Amino acid sequence: MNTHRRTILGTSLAVLAGASLALAAPLSASAHVLASASSSAAGSYTVVTISVPHGLEEESTSIVTIEIPEIIAAVTPTVNPNWTITKTLDGERVAEIVYTAIGAGLPTDQRDTFELSLQLPEGEPGDVVEFRTTQTSPTGATVVWEGDDVPSVVLTADGVNAEEVAAISAPMAETDTLGRVLGGAGLLLGAIALAVSVITRRTALASAGSNSPTSTSGDSK
Asked: Which domain holds residue 141?
């Protein structure tokens, strides 16, 4: 293989590697912190579970801070043997529940759950109660779960079971994940096709150039 062909192949492999990383990135980011509730009926007493599915990038998570909406009058955190618990007050209201790791914290390949006992606010079915959550590493790096990614509970009418809501939401979440996978796979296949096309074209051009006759001139007598 000549230098020209090696250069083409190296460039193409770099394109493929970049496409693979682009595919992997959205998949790794798709594991969100989620909230679930034993009862989602408006005004009901419930236990909200905040599920943290992994550590923080390449580091462990040493602090998990859960913000309590102002509309929640009181909250009681459940003991987690791996974490200490502190409450941040805003006047007499609990504004935050802060879990601090006792040991090394939550590794990147493990999950943990944090339970809060509280009364959901009165409201209309479909109203959303958000629990903005922050993961903090031992070095101070943070990831804030807010906006479209905020852990939340959707209020339902009295008598509608939280598991029924979860059953409806689960296929939607699976569809979203599948869409990301298929979209990323499409990008990767497109990059592969482009790389193969470039290799084929440039190899053909290089081969045609090397096979062209070379004209020579000599002295005529």
From this structure: 32-159
